Amino acid sequence: MNELELKYGCNPNQKPSKIFMEDGSELPVTVLNGRPGYINFLDAFNSWQLVNELKAATGLPAAASFKHVSPAGAAVAAPLSDTLRKIYFVDDLELSPIATAYARARGADRMSSYGDWAALSDVCDKQTALLLQREVSDGIIAPGYTDEALEILKTKRKGTYNVVQIDTSYVPAAIEHKQVYGITFEQGRNDLKIDEDMLKNIVTDNKSFTDEAKRDLIIALITLKYTQSNSVCYAKDGQAIGVGAGQQSRIHCTRLAGNKADIWYLRQCPKVLALPFRDDIRRPDRDNTIDVYISDDYDDVLRDGTWELFFTEKPEPLTKQEKKDWLATFSGVSLGSDAFFPFGDNIERAKRSGVEFIAQPGGSIRDDNVIETCNKYGMTMAFTGIRLFHH
User: Fold this and answer.
1) What range does the domain containing 301 cover?
2) Is residue 388 part of a domain?
3) Is 369 marked active-site?
4) Has residue 266 got a pLDDT over 80?
5) What's the pLDDT score for residue 314?
6) DSSP-based three-state secondary structure for 232
């Protein structure tokens, strides 16, 4: 089959819609269940490239959680601590390596991952399917599925869950095209290989990257390669923990991603872990409540008297000072940027979220100010010399 008709394009009024191979060759995907749409396939093809490259760069199973053609999370199969198992709500599951990677990708930013498109570098097994079964998700792309996994996934969304299999032997053309306003654009495909060689040009006084930092910077950079620009990615412990996508200014990327990284770390605070949730609370409601509890708006929720809907007893607020004290222990974070940092204010904001290691293209007329700010905090920063815009 060299074309597949879709229900509609980005919006219901955009008809007709299809994906097809211009050269008449076979499509490299097979729909095993459901009816994926236009945006589903945009997510599927971008997320597959991301996890495929993560696996190639690290040698570890990789997964991504995509929303609106940008990753909400991306990760490799690094072991999970008991705390992370708890905040990702998988402490009751047996996880295979690929399931662990998806638990990380899905769990990093649960608010953004709601209704995601999942991507796996490896065959989807029963453990991953059971994890997906209880989450709100639109679909999945993987190189294959075990019989048990496929049967489980076919039960989601009353049998309409989108399951797509990718042909791993497929190699896209070196030149790619797209149309905007009836005009065709052409460019060479971004087949840039991201590996540790990109981290050799260290420009700060501190010249040391830990092995973990190298891994996390590679994860951040590959994630950025498939994130709508401008974009910044914070990474730690084998996964993205905050992605700031599609912003018009670099500092807004850094703030957005940094705020997400802060929330990821605040969710590990003992006071948050001990929240007395009702047994009958829905998973999305629990996630939303945690987000509100961590925010500065929680006092308003308490005053509204709505705590009984979520908790068995009224929890004490997490004070600003408690949040400040907890975030002060945040460390060992890696930060990647898809383009150069124009000002040192980005480094100042990154420092607040535990950043110690940075990889960015360099090339700003104010590189000296950015380097000086890194030196002030003892950070290690490499200039990759490579921009990673994605549109």
Assistant:
1) 270-317
2) no
3) no
4) yes
5) 87
6) strand
